Amino acid sequence: MSKMGIVVVKAMDPMIELESAIDMPTFFHTILFAYQKRLEDILGSGEVIFVHPVLETISLIEKEKGLNLIQGETLDEIYENFSKQLVRSKVVKKAWFEKLGPERYVLHVEECAFAGFSHSLLKPKDVICPFALIAMSIFQSVVGRKVKVSDSEFTIDGTKTLIT
User: Fold this and answer.
1) Which residues fall within 8 angstroms of residue 139, CB to CB, at 6 or more apart?
2) pLDDT by residue (tens digit) across 47-66?
């Protein structure tokens, strides 16, 4: 069906058969890495000026949409609950926060559903794992100060990110 050059496809149109569906979550995850990487390539270390406004936007979205990312009384509890949410989402098999000191953590993510595609394709470095961006936003909301921006360390199937 076409109107003025626009193709309209009904969700259950039996006339359309796709060989395979596009894995949109993985595609979006990879696009975010690509975007961060290109900013870093073009602006060098100056790209870090965009991180805090992005973290503030994540916090705004969390509050406006009632995502309930902040569950608990202390940052330790909140991070424990967030890592459980990540695992329950079935996007990662393992997620936890290693506490290095007061207001100093490492987010560990293992067996991420997106890593096999994104990490091997883009070989990310000098970027931040999207889950770590969320954890940094939580940190700022709970602690009441800006987080120190740290790039993630990428493995074949996950990441490690310092949050302080």
Assistant:
1) 75, 103, 105, 147, 163
2) 888 999 999 999 999 999 99
